[in-house]
Amino acid sequence: MPEVQRKVQLEDHRIALTGHCYRMLGSLVDADDAVQDTMVRAWKSLDRFDGRSSLRTWLYRIATNVCLDAIESRTRQRERLRPSAFGTAGTVEDELEAQPRERWVEPVSEQHAVPTDVDPAERAVLRQSIRLAFVAALQHLPPRQRAALLLTEVLGWSAAEVASCLETTTAAVNSALQRARSTLANANLGDAAADLSPPAGLLERYVHAFERYDMEALTALLREDVQMSMPPFALWLQGHTSIRAWLLGRGAICRNSRLLPIAACGAPAFAQYKPAADGGGYAPWSIVVLAAAGEQISEMTFFLDVETLFPRFGLPLRLEP
After folding, report:
1. What is the CB-side half-sphere exposure of residue 251 using CA atoms within 13 A?
2. pLDDT by residue (tens digit) across 42-86?
3. Does domain 3-83+106-192 have CATH number 1.20.140.160?
4. From residue 29, how far is each of 36, 239, 240 by CA, in Å?
5. What residue ranges of the chain are covered by domains with CATH 1.20.140.160?
6. d(CA 46, CA 39)
């Protein structure tokens, strides 16, 4: 097979592999690095691929072990979290304490993590499995439990196939799956149960209210127990009163923002741009990921790591007026 054709065959699987590595690692940046390592390893050993499994399955095996190696190399680092894992909800008077990027579960662009060459049912499973709350819950699992769960529950592998990938026994895989499922059953998955496709009218009203900074209209769209967080800050808020006070006070710098719809984390999402300091156009401010339940918003996460995320999402670094 010509070299160019073999490279194309490998590249055909990059999006699916990125989604898998994102679920394993909780970071689009780390997932990109893991997929690149996977491609290098696969290219070097492609001549030894015996064809007993599909090329995609073979690549998933390599990617899973790349991720396990990456997790092992960062054993002294704590797992990636969401702000709500730091404790109880804060208040508008609390100080803003920033944590390093490596501390947070990051959002992922669906364009880079969910392949389009799959049937609708499989695509729905893949979108559901990149929800922020689900990916965050995965990070609490021991790495091999995490891998076993994803390979079976998301990719549909048998326990025997997983055992071969992880170089263990089928009984050990079944035991790992039992423990992983028990852990997730007791976890607060939050937005993992939210609507994959909320009513279009709800999102239109949200954009209209936020861009006008109409707190009456915006609050009417939020559930009473709505949560709001702003990584890399550890502070998170809950409820109409706290969130309204924040948006009208310290969050008022978001007035006159523009929201650009994007596809992220299997959820409604936007790229937020606020008026540029030089008075011309709009500068990037955050990636906003929402969770919706019926006709209301249950969660708003504003990811403020502009320098890392906007280029990864392929977003412009300025919007014209």
Report:
1. 22
2. 988 887 777 677 888 999 999 999 999 999 887 555 679 999 988
3. yes
4. 11, 32, 33
5. 3-83+106-192
6. 10
